[in-house]
Each structure stands twice: as C-alpha cells, then as structure tokens.
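User: Assemble these into one structure.

Assistant: Restating your components, then the assembled model:
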Amino acid sequence: MSVAAVSRGRTITEADVVAFSGLTGDHHPQHTDAVWAGAGPFGGIVAHGMLVLSYALGLVALDPDRIAALRRIEDVVFKRPVRIGDTIRVEAKVARPDEGRGLEGWEWRILNQNDELVIRAKVEAVVRGEDGPEAEPAADEPGQPAEAQGSVAR
Amino acid sequence: MSVAAVSRGRTITEADVVAFSGLTGDHHPQHTDAVWAGAGPFGGIVAHGMLVLSYALGLVALDPDRIAALRRIEDVVFKRPVRIGDTIRVEAKVARPDEGRGLEGWEWRILNQNDELVIRAKVEAVVRGEDGPEAEPAADEPGQPAEAQGSVAR
C-alpha cells in the first residue's frame, strides 16, 4: 500500500446542492426541502451522497496519461452527512496496484473539516497500456457479454 | 424478489456532460476533450460514470415517505459507455426487503435505448420507521465509531 495522497479541499455550498438537484433531477426533500429535512434526523438539508462522491472524483483528478476510465465502484459507505458549509477533502491511496491486468484498485477516504470520515469508497480504474487499456471486458453478467467495441474496459 | 419497476427515460446531451464537468470539477479528457477522446477506445466523448449513476437516482426518485437516505453503494460496474445522444432508463427491484433492520437492498440495471446494460448497481437505503430511521450506525470502520448524532444511518 502506498502512502495516501491528500486532495485540496472544497466547501459544499447551498448553490452546489441546488445545482446538483436541478441537474440530476434528484429532488428528494432531504436535499431540497428545509422544513422536511429540518424535522428529520439530520436537522437540516444535507448534500446528496452522489454529489459528494462526484466532487471527490473532481478533487482526485485522475491522471489521463495513466487512467483511461473508472471501471468499478466496489463499495461506498455513507458514514456521515455533509451539510451546507462543510469542507471536504479526499485521502486516496492505491490498495491494489496494476500487475499487468490493466486494473488498479483505489481506496478513498472523504473527510470533512473536522477530520471526520464522511464517505469510505473503493474504486477500480482502467490503466492505459502502451496500446491503450489492456483490461478484459467485464464477464460477470451471464448472458450479457460485454461488446468488444463498447465495453468500458477496452 | 419483487418485479422490477422501470423508470422513464432520459437522453444524455452534450449540455449534460458539460454541466456535470463544470459542477463537479471532473475535467478528465474522456469527457471534455473531443480530440483526446476521439483517439481512444470509445472513439469520442462519453458521459461520466458518476453522471449516469447520479441521473439514475433522479430517475428512480426514492419515495421520501419510505426512504430517508442512501446508506451504501455495494457494487457498481460500468459495463458500457454512455455517449452523447444515448437515452438511459433504470430497472429497479428490491433485492433484500427491509426485515425490521431499517435497511432495504436494491438492484439497479441502467439500460440504454438498445436495451444494452450500461451500469449494474447494488444500493442500500435507510427505510424510515414510525419514529424515523431505525438502522444502526455503520460499525465497519475500526476506531472510527459513527457518531450518534451525525451518522447517516440514524
């Protein structure tokens, strides 16, 4: 395991939550209705889990010279809510180096300004070979072989 | 297992990919550089995997009277790229019903206009009890017990 690299921070503002709701169409009241959310266990509006995870990818900024695409998200646990005004950052480390398979496993810890873990995630990325990505197509969907042309892993 | 419910469709436009890049800060050339992406295995710009997954949540539109929050994403496999102009829809079914734990497991199949699988995902949601969500805090982070106040699972 390599040493974890730490990203810059990003403050999650009200504008972020509004924009993400509008763009994705996820208008669950936990993110859009201050009265509904205020009466719930979090006591107010919290950011979408997918917002935080998507912003984490922006913060980590996968190197295009090495990484062709995201292949798999193996596990994501939403540990704590991210509230308006919280500042997140990502600790990322290689958990499974590429050993000729063309796939590299990463562990991410998304932390808030109090060093509390808000999301823990394991992701797998496609490493570019000299002639492009070398990974095999995903073969875990019986009866649905990935297309040679279309598979994300090619 | 219940019968799968099918969402409405949504066409992924160039504007979606541009807006998602700008909002999240994920400017990987696979999503933003037509020349770079055109020389790669997909032959052009493809949507962010997180865009497709986030839009799927908007299409599924979790019922706020039943579902308090997303708790976990157990597995997501990006099977095929989503290109500009593709139309996605989501087949969702309950794979693990809530049996008093306050957690419900879902399986999603995100399909394109040709009925091809583009993303397969397993998610776990917190079911609201009469007095709010009943789930225990996640306890799988040694030395980092979830806070009673702040855990997503409460």
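The beta strands of chain A are 5-6, 10-11, 67-78, 87-96, 103-111, 117-129, 132-133.
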